[in-house]
Amino acid sequence: MALFTPATRKQAKARIALAGPSGAGKTLTGLKLLYALTDARTVADGAERIAFIDTERDSADKYAVDPSQPSVGDMTPEQAGGYGFQKTSPVRYDPRELVTTIEEAARAGFIGLQVDSLSHYWFGAGGVLELVDLFTRNNGGRSMDGWRDVRPIERAYIEALMAFPGHVVVCLRSKQRYEIEEGNDGRKRVAKLGMQPDQREGLEFEFDVFGDLDSEHYLRISKTRCTALDGQVIHKPGQELGEQMLDWLAYGEPPRAIDWDRVLADCTSREDLAVWWQQAQRAGQSFALRDKFAARGQEISAARNGPATMPAEQTDSPPSSAQTPAEPASGAKSQQEAQDTAAAGRRPAGSRAKARAAEVAQ
Fold first, then answer.
1. Distance (Å, rounded) from C-alpha 281 to C-alpha 164?
2. Which of 45, 81, 118, 150 is deepest in the core (most CB within 10 A)?
3. Which carries the bigger pLDDT value, residue 290 or residue 83?
4. What is the set of domains in the chain, with CATH numbers?
5. Nearest Cα to Cα of residue 152 among 204, 195, 95, 201
6. CB 118 within 8 A of CB 90
7. 179-225: pLDDT as tens digits
């Protein structure tokens, strides 16, 4: 079974990031895009299909529909003067709680998700920067150790966004950045570096489209995988841009159905589970399959070590988003597994799963 197989284009879900200062139109643009991407024609459609995580002091309510209007659910947003969606308003911005919220949205069957704004999970109360300070103090004041402990948490919420089984739009606050520079005359002066998102560097690489909105409501596409959008400047983007993206995302083969029960039954090691867990994340199935992966992982551990070696508190624990069903802590195979592998002339544990996953992905 070949590890490498021909690449084929597949249908996908949108991953969009909108950055801009206050008043640029990030919230409204995100709602317009999600209505187009989820094919929500009426207020009722939006309320059924779109989940909204509002960290901006309930500012999204200003774009919501007035429910007292008669038959408002059958109206378009233009007719109703607002949008239908369901929202939650966290008061603390621990990224681990964001992972839980995203999982709840997936389980509830929403096919569109907007996080406005993701910046709060960076600088807000309980966010990444605050966690780094906390872990730094716990490590005797070593900032490097603080970041070492927080990086897996940070990666987990980004992975949760990417694994959501629907379209995702995140909004980011932007602010003017400055730098002290020395001129030719030797004098120091303050130089403007332009608007930059209030988030970690490199976040734009995670998204299909990353755009900057300005105070005049122009969207400048600064990064995209959709060549038709590269370098575009769009005034008050909305339905048309969403439909253009939808056409691009729909081009390709539909994802192949995977018999997950059979896949999990064939997994014989934690390494196999880790490979297929990555495949589940890419397919947007990680939330639905979390309990099954955890149960299979416990079966594999019990078969190797015996039930007595399994800690009782881990019996019902699903794999966290920050930690996939991964390799054992020691990283070593049991002696019996090594003997079986040598006897059968097979590749190391995990390699067969990688080859099979690559084949299924095609």
1. 8
2. 118
3. 83
4. 15-250 (3.40.50.300), 260-361 (no CATH)
5. 95
6. no
7. 677 777 777 776 655 677 878 888 999 999 999 999 999 999 999 99
Phi, psi (deg, nearest 5) at residue 59: -65, -25
- Residue type for position 320: S
Place of tokens 């948490």: 153
81/64 Cα distance (integer angstroms): 8
- Going 204 to 205 to 210 to 212, the CA torsion angle's sign is positive
Full DSSP string of 161-191 = HHH-SSEEEEEEEEEEEEEEEE-TTS-EEEE
Q: H or E stretch including 47?
A: helix 43-49
Residue 101 CA to its chain's centroid (Å): 12
Long-range CB contacts for residues 212-218, cutoff 8 Å, separation at least 24:
212/19, 212/20, 212/174, 213/18, 213/19, 213/20, 213/24, 213/25, 213/26, 213/29, 214/20, 214/21, 214/24, 215/21, 215/23, 215/24, 217/24, 217/25
Q: List pLDDT tens digits, range 263-285.
A: 899 888 888 888 888 778 777 67
For residues 181 and 192, what is the distance between their CA atoms, to the nearest angstrom? 10
Indicate the helix (H) or strand (E) that contains 305.
helix 286-305
Nearest-angstrom CA–CA distance, 132 and 349: 36
Q: Cβ neighbours of residue 313 under 8 Å, at least 6 residues apart? A: none
Q: How far is CA 114 from CA 36, 64, 167, in A?
A: 13, 14, 9
Summarize the confidence of residues 239-255 as an average pLDDT. 92
Length of the chain: 362
Q: Mean pLDDT, to the nearest integer, of 31-49?
A: 96
Other beta carbons within 10 Å of 76: 14
Angle of helix 270-282 versus helix 143-163 axis, rounded to 10: 60
DSSP assignment of 106-166, as one string? HHTT-SEEEEETTTHHHHSTTSHHHHHHHHHHHTTS-HHHHHHHHHHHHHHHHHHHHH-SS
- Token pair recorded at residue 91: 């008061």
Burial 257-294 (b: 16+ CB within 10 A, else e): ebebeebbeebbbbbbbbbbbbbbbbbbbbbebbebbb
pLDDT surpasses 60 at 310:
no
